[in-house]
Structure formats: C-alpha cells, structure tokens
Amino acid sequence: MKKITVMLVAAMCILAAPTFAKAKSSKKAKASKNKTVVAGEKFFKDPKTKKAYDFGGLTVYINDWWSNPNAAPSSKFEEDQRAFRKSLEDTYNFKVIQKDLGAGWSDHPSEVANYCITGGDDARIFVIDSRSALSGAANNLWADLSKVPDINWKDKKWNKAVCSVLPGYTFSVGKPEPRQVIFFNKRVLQENGFDPEEPYKLQRSGKWTWETFESMCQALTKDTDNDGIIDQYALSGFNTEFTLPAIYSNGGQLTGRDKNGNIYLDTSDKTMEALNWVKEIFLKYNKPAEEGANWDYFKSDFLNGKTAFYSDQEYNAQANGILATMKDDWGMVCFPLGPNGDKKYFSMNQDNMFVIPACYSKDKINKIMKIYDIWTTTVPGYEDADAWKEGYYGCFRDTYAVDETMQYIIDNSKSWDAWLIPNFNWQPIAWNVCGGMDPAEVIESMRNELQAALDDINE
Predict the structure, then answer these.
(1) pLDDT tens digits along 311-337
(2) What is the pLDDT of residues 403-435, one digit of tens each?
(3) How far is CA 64 from the centre of its chain?
(4) CA dist 128 to 112, 122, 134, 141, Å?
(5) Which of 338, 334, 339, 330 is nearest to 314 (CA)?
(6) CB contact set of 36 (below 8 Å; sequence gap of 6+)
(7) Distance separating the N- and C-terminal Cα atoms of the chain
(8) What is the distance, to the nearest Å, from the Cα of residue 98 to the centroid of all Cα atoms in its chain?
(9) What is the pTM of this model?
(10) CA 332, CA 40: separation in Å to the nearest integer?
C-alpha cells in the first residue's frame, strides 16, 4: 500500500426515549412542536452565478448497509427534518436518497471498491468503516474534497472526528459516537458504605482516577463469610473495552508514528504501565467466570447486581440495550484517568465515514459535496447547542450521565490508528493480559504478526 498519514480524533450517534431522571435537569432543546419546518430566509448562492444554486434535478444516493428510505419517521425531529430537507430539495432542484446498497455488511467494502474502480453514471456517497478507509485511500478510490468550493468546514455541524480520519477525504455531520465507559450499580455502592453518586462526584472534581477507582474496587472485593475465599467482586470487566481506554488514559497508545509517518507498535513505558495495571485490576477485582458460564457472563453478573462496576460501551444504555430493564439503579462515568495521561475524560473514535468516489469528474464531485452540505443544514428550531442531549436522556436513570459524562466524551474523543489497520489484531493482547499473562511476554509472542500488518500499511 502507499504510505498515507492518518489522523484520528474522536467519536457518536443518538437515540431517543423519555427519561426518569433523578438529578438536576439541564435546559431542554428549543425544538418546534407543531409547525411544519420550511427552508426559511437563508438562500445558498452559487459563488459563480451569484444566484441560488440549481442542481438540475440531480439525485444523490447515500449508500450504507442498513437504511430503508421508506421507513416512517420515528420522532417529531425526524418529521421536521424530512419536511425541511424536502423544502431544500425543491428550492435547489436536487434529491437525496439514503438507502442500503444491498450487499450486506460483509460484502459492502468490495461492492464499494468495485463501483469506485468501474465508475457509474449516477451520483453516490458511500458510508464506509475501518475495513475500507485505508485501503481505499491507498488505491485512490476516494475523492479529494479539500478544494471543493463554498464548503464551510468550520461549521459546527461537521463531525470533527470523522473529518480528521483522512483529512480532505472522509466526512460526516453530527456528534461523534460515545464508546468506552464505566457503569456502576448504585445499590451495591450504598450497601458497601459508599455514596451511591460517588463516581459522579469524583468525576466532577477531576478525581475519578486509577487510584480512586482501585481504592473503591479494593473495598468492594470481599470475603463476606470469612471462609478465606473471595465471594464479592467489584468489577465485571469486558477485557477489550477496559484495556483499550486504560492504555490511552495513561498517555500510551497501541501504535505510534515516527517522523516519516511510518506506523510502529508502541511498547513505551506509558503503554506497558497501563497493561500491567490492567493485569492487576483483573487478577484482584474482576469477578471470575463460574463453571459452564458463557463468554459474556460478566454482563449478566452486573445486571443481576453481583458487581459494582461494569466496563463496556455506551450502547448498553440505549433503548434496546441490556441495561434498559436492569432492576437496580445505575449510573455511567468515563474511564478513570491514568497518572500519565492528559487529565481529560474521553472515549475512543470508531465512527462510520462518508466518502465520494474519485472516479467522478471534478464538477460532479463538487456538486455532490455541495448538495450534501445544503441537505445537512441544521433544522430551524433545533439550533440549541444542547439539542443532541434530548435523544439520550430517556436512556439513563439520571441526567448526570448525559449532562456530564456524555458531554466529556463528546468533547474529547481519542484518536488512534490501530482500528484502521487491516489485520492488526490487537485484541488478544487484552484477552491474555486480563487473563493474567505478563504484558511484555504477550506482546513479544504477537510481535511478528502485528509487525506484518504494520509493514503492509507502511509500504
């Protein structure tokens, strides 16, 4: 592959439902309630003609692997958004249809690549993920959008995380998607002498750190019947979703870049310190599997109130997530801060990306990009900076999870190259370290395999 510089910044998406918040609520978004939204007074003028854009009836297809263009709107916002977008399409003489490409998730990358190589008479934007990003860029399949005229890339609507994956090529709008977090059981904390809101208080004061987390784990891991056997554990840990943020919370990384842009396997002191800390946490405080348990036993252990903490991704809290029906009250905080990190709460970016095929003419690329820019204009009545929170409140048992935790991880997501590198299978590092193996020995046993993947991307 050709060498390319990849910059990642941060990660998020949104669901909706009612809330039964117990904490102080933030201000609600000022959304229109009953009126049909129209294009309003703002007009988009072509800088060449000084007149309103006219795209001549061009239809742009946004192809992913899940969208149904005939699905009914699921909320008042979607109703208003569709009405507003229809008015934009009528005003500027274009149409946008977002639909499933029809190849399914597994074959989507090859279908996208085939189209970009052979070309087509229609106009498309493709949604891609980590399987396509680097290989497509290396083979010049994605259009360079950096010089498309009349695009304000500083507009707050753009997802900075996605726009920074392959600067000038990948794009999207909206907030980055939240990822790694720590859930906690308020009942278990209270029954063990803690304030049930303690993790929130520590996070709010900047003291939610490895040290305070481990101190709580130590107090929550007990031999309750004095038979010499630990029978109460603090943590239900998902090994990969604990190990990854632990590394980056300490200023470490799975891979780094040298001065020439080559990607290398990172075994710096900060990375190794994090891996050794992870090993100790899992050995001492993570609830082991019972005989015959499924691989994801830790999820049901937390759901059934057997542990105080659960490390995984935020999607567990969404309307269709496993925590929706949990009996005990629970909260959600960011991953605790490591001693050598930047002291900012975060999550990791893994958002889907939008690209335009490079096989099109420059004029066609410019038109497609400008159509998407206009089509994604913020809907009137939904300009409130906190409007994104409305879709999350109903997923949680308190508003602190949204107003504080979600705000932190939307504002500061971490960039990382490793998830984009084909065949860079880093997950066994987490599996083995969390299983008690020495981190240095684990990495050494995997070095040749990991280096081969890096050599391919550095060629």
Answers:
(1) 999 999 998 899 999 999 999 999 999
(2) 999 999 998 888 788 999 989 999 999 999 999
(3) 17
(4) 8, 19, 11, 12
(5) 334
(6) 80, 83
(7) 5
(8) 21
(9) 0.83
(10) 40
DSSP helix/strand/coil, 348: strand
pLDDT recorded at residue 28: 39
Tokens standing for 289? 């599997």
Surface-to-core class of residue 221, CB atoms within 10 Å of its CB (0-12 exposed, 13-18 middle, 19+ buried): buried
DSSP 313: E
Q: Widest CA span of the chain, in angstroms? A: 84
d(CA 119, CA 240): 39
Task: State how beta strands 180-185 and 330-333 pair.
Answer: antiparallel
Q: How far apart are CA 103 and CA 106, in angstroms?
A: 7
Backbone angles phi, psi at 354, to 5 degrees: -105, 140
With pLDDT > 90 as the criterion, what percentage of the chain qualifies?
A: 78
355 in Cβ contact with 170 (< 8 Å): yes
Whether the predicted pLDDT of 8 surpasses 80: no
- Helix, strand, coil fractions of the chain, as percent rounded to 5: 40, 15, 50
Q: For residue 223, what are the contacts with CB-CB under 8 A and spacing of at least 6?
A: 229, 230, 231, 232
Q: What is the mean pLDDT of residues 289-314?
A: 95
List Cα–Cα distances, 316 to 236, 292, 319, 325, 329, in angstroms.
14, 24, 8, 11, 14
User: What does the alpha-carbon distance between residue 445 and residue 452 come to, in Å, rounded to a whole number?
Assistant: 13
**Amino acid letter, residue 290:** E
Q: What is the mean pLDDT of the chain?
A: 90
Distance CA 56, CA 59 (A): 9
Rg over alpha carbons for the chain, rounded to the nearest Å, is 24
**Strand duo 255-257 + 263-265: pairing:** antiparallel
Contact 351, 172 (CB under 8 A): yes
Q: Is the pLDDT of residue 37 over 50?
A: no
Handedness of CA 25, 30, 32, 34 (dihedral sign): positive
Q: Are 42 and 71 in contact (CB under 8 A)?
A: no
How far, in Å, CA of 3 to CA of 20, rounded? 50
